[in-house]
Predict the structure.
Amino acid sequence: MTAGIIGLVPRFRYLLVTPALLEALDEDEVAGVVAHEAGHVKHRHLWFYIIFFTGLFASAISLLYDAVSLAAIWGQMAHPETLARENAGSYAAFATSALTIVFVIIGFRFIFGAISRNFERQADLYSLQVMGSPLPIQSALLKISAHSGDLRDIPSWHHGSISERVAFLQEAFSQPDSAQAHEKKIRKIKNLLWAGLLTATTLAAAAKIPVVAGWLYFTATKTGIESYMSRNPDEAGPLMALGMLYYEDGQDEKGVGELYRAAEMDPQNPYVQNALAWVLAKSQNPAVKNCAEAVSHAEAACLILPLPSFLDTLAEAHWCAGETEEARKTIEIALEFAKNSGAEDEIPYLERQKERFSAENLP
């Protein structure tokens, strides 16, 4: 026993009334219900519902996904012992799904519910305005309640109780100022909805801009590394990670400073030596680039652990220093190591390096 409006476009908009409702109500009561449904159209409630769901919810969920992804990045850096890199994606996906479900339930139940109840009151006011009296819609509501098992005092999360709606209509009829106050309240709700939509869509769009996304990634990674370092101040690995982060962000001087600190802390760490050599050889900053030192640190890394990737760094250092023959010989050795050690995924890159070093011109 109900009635409703479907369709956003006037030409394809329909009023649906169940036969049971038509049988239960008299002509004036049906008119009051129709006026109520017309109030939804008059005040464009359907459009606001569409905006609320597709715009605000989509933007908010996009922001939620970005926030969880950044939290996962931070967690990988801050707590690598518990949040392994290979499992971080699964954790992030689970957290995103769980939080999205919670967000939708809370948003639908409380935010949409509050908006819907206030829109229903506005539609009731429109019925009062059209009919000139609250009696038709009040009587219709009470009959619907009686035919449905006397539901007048049972709360409805999206309509409110029938008793509340009947009392609201009576107050609006006897005290017109209360009706005006409700219309003012609706305007505030709509303004808040528009402001929320604008804010959420702006933030969601901004988070996808490469510069902003890069800054967010950098900040999450940096603060995560710093959190780990605060608990493990004697480890060189986090310093190396921080140095490479700065380097990849274009802050070469900061990056090489952290790498030098890491090398001083653990001079026998081949990964630290290799990272420092790479930055010294590849940096475009004259204050950082030092080809001779790059060769020295790369050689130290290879003496400890002659990985193909470390030999590639040594080749780059030789190339940087103008030692072309050494660069070519070293990349050949790196290729052989890759083939013999089963590091097949590195072979295509090393082949390209060999071709590059075969050119006559120096870098």
